[in-house]
Amino acid sequence: MADYWTEYAWFPDGPVGAVRLSERYGRWEAITTGVPPGPGDIRLPGVAFPGFANCHSHAFHRALRGRAGGRRTQSFWDWRATMYRLAERLDPDSYLALARACYAEMALSGVTAVGEFHYLHHDIDGRPYADPNAFAAALRQAAVEAGVRLTLLDTCYLTGGLTADGYQPLRGAQLRFGDQDVGRWVERVAALADDARTRIGYAIHSVRAVPTEHWRPIIEAAGDRPLHLHLSEQPAENAAALAFHGATPTRLLADSGALGRSTTAVHAIHITEEDRHLLGTSGTWICCCPTTEGDLGDGIGPAYDLNEAGSPLSLGSDQHAVIDIFTEMQALQRHQRLRSGLVQQFTPSRLVAAATAHPSIGWPDAGRFGEGDRADLVAVRTDSHRTAGADPEQLISAATASDVHTVIADGAPVVQEHRHRLGDVGRLLSEAVDRIWRAR
Ligand SMILES: [Zn+2]
Predict the structure, then answer these.
(1) CA–centroid distance, residue 132 to ligand 1 (Å)
(2) Which residues pair with 166 in a beta bridge?
(3) Which residues are annotated as catalytic?
(4) To which H or E segment does residue 116 belong?
(5) Which protein residues have their CB within 5 A of the ion that is ligand 1?
(6) How would residue 440 be classed by pLDDT, with cut points 50, 70 and 90?
């Protein structure tokens, strides 16, 4: 139980001054605006935002940072080959250490919930572990220890690719991702259950990794839980879908009944006007991952147009070349400005809405300051050399993760005075990454 007072707190229309937030049992019990600080209040600096949601993560990719962009990486597919070499080296213990450090880094940037698009399921050659959800258990433990809520988006991954000739078998590292058939995937994920800090959601890895005839059981398993999928990240995926199915990936998903308000399409970059209409009118979420999309040369998608067409937006740090939700907001804005020449741009409120899209990962009672909502909070300093002088309403265009002073998730302090409760997160990351690349 605690009472916080902040100079500004962010509400759907922007910042409001002099706000007291009273937390009881992990929820906001009372929120009062325009009041002076009381004697027992904990005073927070700067602007308080509701906790950020990182809606697209592959935690193990954190071990690729600064290692996968050398001269030999000339395309997305070269980067993927390096990622597969990493995937071959992980076991549940080393993944626990890496994910714990990665999620702690997220918390330092203000993240209070993460959507983990989880496709590394099995041992080498695809053999199940004694606990077939051993990696999922590691991710759950990692999130608890790092102080972020987890939405485990268990991902079906059955084929190694799609060409004009059809679906290709899994090979090499991909064998660790597969459950052989969709029935076995359904059986494995049925053993996963929600708890107070974890939600189970589902994912179709992509049009190239799950043949269309197997989508129905996945959509049925998802029901009204979050269903995520990679969509049209690279032109090659679209070309293969058109060559083999005679339809775009979006059209195939629409025809299968996969689109809708509990579905999130990640990337949605290379899409047609018809695709945009299908996504927007169905209210399908679009998860933009601008730093990853830039790093991998994916392209700049029509995020603004999709948002205008009816798709709410969320943000993800995806491969974690950067973990900084402010940088994602800024990159989303800049990409759309570059695309349109300033004609199309997001208001700060729309960018913060994308950064706080907890409902898209199954947390409808988070991502806003409302009485009864989860007591998440990110206090961002306005007096650093980066943010000094910024109007609170435009603070997100100047701040970085380094300006995050305090993070509270479900009422529990996770970051205080820029320090994570686990201690030196740089050291945790170094140890976890070194251990993986040195192994064997
Ligand atoms: Zn991804």
Answers:
(1) 22
(2) 163
(3) 267, 318
(4) strand 111-118
(5) 318
(6) low
